[in-house]
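Hey all, quick one. A colleague (J.T.) asked me to put the NAP job into the tracker so the inputs and the structure tokens live in one place instead of scattered across chat threads. No bug as far as I know, just bookkeeping. Sequence used:
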Amino acid sequence: MTNSATAQRVSVIGLGAMGTALAQALLAGGHQVTVWNRTAARAEALVAEGAVLAATSAEAMAAADLVILCVLDDPAVREHIEPAAAQLRGRTVVNLTTTTPEQARSLGAWALANEVDLIDGGIMAVPSMIGGPAAFVLYSGATAAFDRFRAVLELFGRAEFVGADFGAAAMYDLAILGGMYSMFAGFQQGGKMVRTTGGTAAHLATLMAPFLQAMTTMFAQYAPGIDDPDNYVPEQSAEFTASALGTIDKAAAESGTHTELFGVLLRALPGI
Ligand SMILES: NC(=O)c1ccc[n+]([C@@H]2O[C@H](COP(=O)([O-])OP(=O)(O)OC[C@H]3O[C@@H](n4cnc5c(N)ncnc54)[C@H](OP(=O)(O)O)[C@@H]3O)[C@@H](O)[C@H]2O)c1
């Protein structure tokens, strides 16, 4: 619980599943929370917990030193933020709406032109994880503003600042999700393959999960090959990787479950 000396005035715009979880974490942290949602009824539970409901998004923005946006997408952000430039001047805005890096940079340029301190964020959690030990949130943009409000932002989960480039948090966020979906694609393909032997995807899941978890320790070894390729000596030769992927691709073909997946990996993974 934050004591009144450190309590901040924070507004949350957007009370979907995620915005509601963020507002609850702020209330639990002892902050003065103003909320606004397009569908006002979604604010009722938060008001019962102590939040103040603003009549308009601009009113909510004017009520706080720290404004948190968590709406559907970039157009929804722009719809509310651009007409409120006067209310936002001199304030800090943290946009936790998922956007592309270029959308974040464009919003960053708008913020600089309007004297708003913008921090863009990417939430690496589902709403039920907010405030818990496994949640973390990526931030980028206005560095001094991030330092100023870091303690508030830590209420959502570990706060990880990834650079002054407004697009950095979105890029890291989407890079991590790209890794996740690549892994899911491998599981989908593998599940189909083992079923042709009488096995099940459920059994494969119990075997693949701990193996992949152990393999994530290899990321740190492969990173120099991306960060400093000129001086990198691959752990595996390109031939070894090509041979392994070729064998896996052949097994997929033999099982009649062939997809393009392993051919794509072969092109994406030279010597690692
Ligand atoms: N849920 C997750 O697990 C998760 C994880 C990471 C990041 N995020 C990101 O967090 C953001 C919100 O996600 P969510 O899960 O809270 O989604 P959600 O439950 O579908 O809520 C969407 C919110 O956006 C509002 N909205 C949509 N269009 C709007 C507009 N034009 N003007 C004003 N408000 C508008 C909705 O208002 P109404 O109530 O009036 O419809 C609602 O408050 C998204 O960008 C999402 O990618 C979510």
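Adding what we noticed when we looked at it: Confidence is low (pLDDT under 50) at residues 1-5. The longest strand covers residues 117-124.
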